[in-house]
Specification:
- The chain is an alpha+beta fold and about 160 residues long.
- The protein has a domain of about 80 residues: Zinc/RING finger domain, C3HC4 (zinc finger) (Herpes Virus-1, 2-Layer Sandwich), CATH 3.30.40.10.
- It contains four helices and seven strands, in the order βββαββααββα.
- The strands form three sheets. The chain has a three-stranded antiparallel sheet, with no helix packed on it. The protein has a two-stranded antiparallel sheet with strand order 4-5.
- β2 and β3 form a beta hairpin.
- The chain is globular and about 35 Å long.
- The chain starts with 6 loop residues before the first strand and ends in a 12-residue tail after the last helix.
- Pfam families: zf-HC5HC2H.
């Protein structure tokens, strides 16, 4: 029986590439290239100002891009950041309940959920919008999505 001697070398050539070479006495040299992504440093979520949107952290009042900007005692929010937040549902029977039918307590829960998620584009935490593909785990802020040409559409009622 032939004994195989395995010698493994790990060489960092680039930040995103790991090269592993394996040598055996009988067999020829085989090279395996394993691509991996180094973990990104997640940047903590910070609001631009006390009146900034609790979802995206920006205080821009651009109704064309972000929808109306709502201010309440404890929070401010862009309409589209509110509508596209993945873990949020309109439980109010009237639009006058909370903000457009979204209860303040539900908004605060979604903000807490988002603090655990990093934006795919800017790497800051607080991303509450998820990709519509079930297998895709990417999350992002609404303005980051707009800047990176993501598509946001409404289709019937949300279920």
């Amino acid at each position: 029986m032939l004994k195989k001697q395995i010698e493994t070398q790990i060489v960092m050539t680039q930040p995103l590439l790991l090269i592993v070479s394996s040598k055996s006495v009988v067999e020829s040299i085989a090279y395996f290239v394993i691509a991996f992504r180094m973990p990104h440093k997640r940047i903590p979520f910070q609001l631009e100002s006390p009146t900034a949107c609790v979802f995206c952290g920006r205080d821009e009042n651009n109704e064309f891009l972000y929808g109306k900007f709502f201010h309440r005692k404890t929070l401010s929010v862009h309409q589209n950041c509110l509508f596209f937040a993945s873990g949020l549902s309109q439980r109010g029977r009237k639009e006058s309940e909370g903000i457009l039918g979204f209860f303040i307590s539900d908004i605060q829960k979604e903000v807490l959920r988002g603090k655990k998620l990093a934006c795919f584009h800017c790497k800051r935490k607080g991303a509450t919008i998820g990709c519509c593909k079930a297998v895709c785990r990417r999350t992002f802020h609404f303005p980051c999505g707009i800047q990176n040409q993501t598509l946001h559409q409404f289709f019937g009622s949300f279920s």
